[in-house]
Amino acid sequence: MPSSLVRVLSRRMVGVMVVAMAVTAVLYAVFKPVELEYELGAIAEEIGERVRRNEAGQLDVRIDPEFTAWLAAIEALHLRVYEEETGRTLFAFDQERGDPRAVEALIRWPPGFFVLGHHEAEEHDYGFIELLETEDGDVIRVVARRGPANWHDLYYWITTEFTRELGPIISAVFLFGAALAVWTVRRALAPLGRIARQARAVRPGESARLDTAGIPEEILPLVEAVNRMLDRLQDAFAQQRRFTAFAAHELRTPLAALRARLDGLPPDLPERDALLRSVERMAHLVDQLLAVARLESGEIRPDEIADLREIAREVVIEYAPLALTAGKEIALSEPEEPVPALVHRDSLLRAIANLVHNALKYAPEGTLVEVIVERERRVLVQDRGPGLGGCPPEELFEAFRRARQQRADVTGAGLGLAVVRETAQLHGGRAFARERPGGGAVFGIELPAP
């Protein structure tokens, strides 16, 4: 299966966005100083949930091993929890390193996060003071001081920073950027879709060119090359049509002369009838070649509103003597109301005549060939002949294509049904064929509403 250019470009653009965001995140983590207020703030929040009054009515901090282990993982932490009103110490925690007296100098500092620098080193200590109000309205003061950041702090800061702040922003930017990338790619490739629709609408022999307006310069050479190819094809079709029309026209005169000479032969000459039949087939082939040339020239256009019933009657009346001579029957079924359609009368009459001639040729003796006109602007011709012979219906209408099991067009050269198809397409309709239940075939033409 061919890959989608929109999906390929969209995936690549999204991949570039992911790499760019990852690089940005890494650079952010490398060059931005580590911020420890996340963890220190989490300590204050945890302590606020653990402060309760004990049975004696005094404030107390509930301590457990898990909480202590968390505090022990923080670099050189010194923590004090005071009752703000009385100054009583509710909880104290000191790691082995550091001077416990370092907290005492911070007790009365205003609340907030702060950085303490060393005069002889580049490392910094960090601290914070937080005032918390309990459910009972008591106020406690949480004072903490800790040493410089380590790898544990870096990991905690990165995960917290990206989860709380950068994560939502990056996710929103990624989703918006991905949608914008897909939209941009689709919009940039929209001219290709327009060109593809124009190319699909080009029919053989038509003088058509692809519109180059709005085409990106990277694709413009391809479109111009296709236009040059269409010009060459148009010239080739024109030469073919001129040759076909010229050859068919030039053959009519000698065929007419040959027919006149054969008519002058004695009637009892054994070869006379066979020669006349051969000349008739050749004349019919010439007529079909001229019909194909006129249809492909583009000069024939539907120009009148006609009743399909009248055209079908004319064909049936014309072929009734031939059917009787061959020992076959021909009948017409039509609705009571008119079936109007925009047609070119002569070409449509010839197409229906080809279908009737074909059916009479292959219908067994004593059987009925029925011409049916339907309200949906369909004309059907059905017989009890050999059917389609296993040949796909679409292949039957190709020029010079003969079906299996003796199913062929009226001339035996493969032009009759090609004329039918070209005529149907000329009218904006379609030609079709199918097997008939019980044996035989159904051929038809369907036309659009006028």
Overview of the molecule:
The protein folds into 4 domains: 59 residues, no CATH class; 112 residues, Beta-Lactamase, CATH 3.30.450; 76 residues, Signal transduction histidine kinase, dimerisation/phosphotransfer (DHp) domain (Helix Hairpins), CATH 1.10.287.130; 146 residues, Heat Shock Protein 90 (2-Layer Sandwich), CATH 3.30.565. Helices cover 50% and strands 18% of the residues. A 5-stranded antiparallel beta sheet has the order 4-3-7-6-5, with helices on one face. The protein has a 5-stranded mixed beta sheet with strand order 9-11-12-14-13. Strand 5 and strand 6 form a beta hairpin. About 2% of the residues have low confidence.
